[in-house]
Amino acid sequence: MYIDVILSPAEIASVLPTRDLSGTTCVVFDVLRATSSMVTALAHGATEIYPVRTIEEALALKARISGALLGGERNGDLIEGFDVGNSPLEYTDRVNGRRIITTTTNGTIALRACDGAERVLVGAVLNIDAVAKVLRATWPARVLIVCAGTFADFALEDACGAGLLISYLGAESLSDSAHAALAVARLYPEPLAALRASQNGRVLVKSGRMADVEWCAQLSLLDVVGEMKSAVIRPVAR
Ligand code: MLT
Q: Percent of the chain, pLDDT > 70?
């Protein structure tokens, strides 16, 4: 298994579209908070998640999927007219048996940038062990971990998630960026420290969302993996 890591939104925008991903398994991390919210929703019974890039796409999809919850954020806040924001804690009580349409600043963009990949898995600190188990079971030749970032910037928490996954896999062949992600994870034996130190983490704490940061930092709490096929995320049957 060769593991490479995309560490910044600039690479997602410029490098990913030029890559042939047909033989690659992508794992997308947006630890604060998009992929953590998705993993939380799946663990609490959500049946399908539709990640889309824009508010307009979300509204158009909602018109076709009756009963779907509309979720996501802009600037971290609930989008006007939407049912839920992007706090993982909003995806525990009311999602059982529901479909969710979501659009977020970085997370859903990163996921949909992987549309051409052989497999696309949804990663978070919350489900590192479960993702590692899925990858160990198939041992794909090429894994690309995609860190969604924060607005246009590298995000420490996503690199930490990527590094944790690499440490769980113990793969023999790593790109330089994979080595860098692994070094980040080793720097923070407690994921919460990385999440709190990150730009996004500090903004969330300042805006009274420490509970979200603490939730997202729980290592391998949830034994669920989402897989995106044809732009729909469903739990992987295991
Ligand atoms: C994103 O997709 O950019 C994030 O999940 C933003 C957030 O923290 O809500």
A: 100
